[in-house]
Amino acid sequence: MICDICGQEGAHIRRVTRSYGQGADLLIIENIPLVSCSHGGESYLTAETLYELERIKLHRQSFAQGRSVPVATFA
């Protein structure tokens, strides 16, 4: 895969988890495709991925499943 930032071959897709909001508005989205380049060390989300993230956040009631999530504070 070619990196959109440096233009070199060698970029690959990693799957990540991101959280949006906090408290009662917390939404965790798993399995997000993130393009990672081994040459420059850059990582980025494609426009299509950003569009889908916004769609998921907008329609969270249709996509989200309720789960209890333990939270720890880094000390």
Word description of this protein:
This protein is an alpha+beta fold. The chain has a domain at 12-63. The protein has two helices and three strands, in the order E-E-E-H-H. It has helices spanning 47-58, 60-63, and strands spanning 12-20, 27-36, 43-44. Strands 1-2-3 form a three-stranded antiparallel β-sheet, covered by helices on one side.
Question: What are the key terms here?
Answer:
three-stranded antiparallel sheet, 21% helix, 2 helices, alpha+beta, 75 residues
Shape: globular
Poorly predicted segments: none
Mean pLDDT: 91
- What kind of oligomer do you see? single chain
Report the β-strand fraction as a percent range.
Answer: 25-35%
Distance between the termini: 39 Å
The sequence of SSEs as H and E is EEEHH
Summarize the amount of helix as a percent range. Answer: 10-25%
- Biggest sheet, spatial arrangement of strands: 1-2-3
Count every beta strand, where a strand is a DSSP E run of 2 or more residues.
3
For the sheet with most strands, the description reads: 3 strands, antiparallel
Number of helices: 2
Taking Cα atoms only, what radius of gyration do you get, to the nearest Å? 15 Å
Report the structural category: alpha+beta
